[in-house]
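--- STAGE predict ---
source: upstream dedup step, 1 unique chain passed
mode: sequence only
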Amino acid sequence: MRAARHPPNPRDAPAEAAPDQEETQMKTRVTELLGTQYPIIQGGMQWVGRAELASAVSNSGGLGILTSLTQPTPEDLTREIARCREMTDKPFGVNLTIFPAASPPPYAEYLSAALEAGVKVIETAGRSPKEFIEQIHAAGGKVVHKCTAVRHALSAERAGVDAISIDGFEAAGHPGEDDIGGLVLFAAAARAVKVPLIASGGIGDGATMAAAFALGAEGINMGTRFCAVAEAPIHDNIKQAIVRAGERDTILIFRTMRNTGRVLKNAVSEEVVAIETRPGGAEFKDIHPLVAGARGRAALEEGDTDGGLVWASQVCGLIDDIPTCAELIERIVADCRASLAQAASRVA
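--- STAGE serialize ---
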């Protein structure tokens, strides 16, 4: 286990004042777009983006996200949206990740289910959402498109999305093939796009949120950090594994197949890499039994940390505890403000 990290010395922070409206909200173009108290989005995560987590994030001032393809059918998504509404009266969104496949899921039906249920924020990822944008806007919705490169962000902007969420190479999931870390990617994207920019990947505390703002972002998207909260619907063993992990404890899989994914190091992911890199190479069928979604879902639910893939980002190195969503978001907002003030004081 890595050495414990310590919070900043309170004497280094500016003196606290009585809270007022300015301190209980953060106004950016992202909060105006989403209707949230803070510009903090919970990423859409397979098997994790359920009503328990999404409602807790929204109730805490951020934007919770239900993951559509976690639900077996569009009808199940309709029921999950209703269940989330029983837990929160705040805005929440639905993620639709679109990948080409020989037998693709009924993406259009999932989208229609979300819009007909009154969801106003759709987070898209994977390939371009161009074919769905008119339908979303006609229903009064907004499109936040998640991508991994500036060129893809510009293409999505031209297609009419309302905001861009851009993944640095530190991110969990599929961070693309360009290997551009957030420090450069966030700044480059902020220079290029005109719609609100949301930084994603490697964001997990107030200091990284402040850094994203300094680079031009107006909001943040967090996935792995929201896996290690009390309300995340995954086994405590998985949460504790994330807490124990350091910034060097993720691994890149599917690298040889040009579909790079970042996951926690465990027995399964290390076996995948060993098969991929063996002499003569490998095909997807050689690793499919190891990476099957059902196996990963079972690991998350049963707590077997070596039972399947556990998608996680390098932000593990910044995670020390398992707070509630409310505790986490309030802490991040306060620490973001303190970090920005401390940075300004150093160059005054």
